[in-house]
Design goal:
197 residues; 11 helices; 2 domains; mainly alpha; AhpD-like
């Protein structure tokens, strides 16, 4: 499940149990990523607050596009699988697979394509971002507040992917069991274990 051992369910404290119950309530199971937070359940709570705050300022489509662009640029297979699947609510699987390669299918607006390119650049090396990159976003109608939001979503995803990748968190069986061509297209970094969780 991960590179670190997690606390057996029989030995978890009340804070961890409450965190697991929230995850169970939302997903119908306790995800592998949640189990690595058994030592620091308060950090999971802070992550949830951060995500809620970021999502408050944009619609789901925009949030998922930025997150997916960051996840693929950061080469997180786990996050690319999860958020790629969510993007199929808005786009065809074929278009999501193109986005995973850095392409901009016709189903994206010009502003969305520019936003994703910016998100990828931030994820790959924020120090390379220039005032011109931000100005290009503004030419596509983004406000200063929205540019902040885009950068913040990418920054948050970098924290999450770096943490989960460093701990070797494996994908859930529901992600492993996705259609093969789509799963392979989302495998942008470490291959997932075909044995599931």
């Amino acid at each position: 499940m991960a590179f670190i051992d997690t606390i057996p369910d029989s030995d978890i404290n009340a804070d961890v149990r409450a965190m697991y119950e929230r995850q169970q309530s939302f997903w119908g199971f306790v995800p592998n990523y949640a189990r690595v937070f058994c030592y620091r359940p308060e950090i999971m709570g802070l992550w949830a607050q951060l995500q809620a705050g970021l999502k408050r300022n944009m619609d789901k489509r925009r949030f998922e596009l930025i997150t997916f662009a960051a996840a693929t640029a950061l080469r997180s297979t786990l996050c690319s699988l999860g958020h790629g699947r969510t993007l199929t609510e808005f786009f065809s699987k074929e278009d999501v697979q193109l986005m995973a390669k850095g392409a901009s299918p016709a189903s994206l607006t010009a502003a969305e394509a520019e936003m994703m390119a910016f998100a990828r650049k931030v994820a790959r090396g924020a120090f390379t971002v220039t005032a011109g990159d931000v100005e290009q976003l503004k030419k596509h109608g983004f406000t200063d507040a929205e540019v902040f939001d885009i950068a913040a979503v990418v920054g948050a995803r970098a924290f999450w992917t770096d943490l989960l990748e460093a701990l070797g968190v494996q994908a859930e069986p529901s992600l492993v069991g996705m259609e093969e061509n789509f799963r392979k297209a989302m495998t942008v970094g470490r291959p997932i274990s075909m044995n599931g969780a």
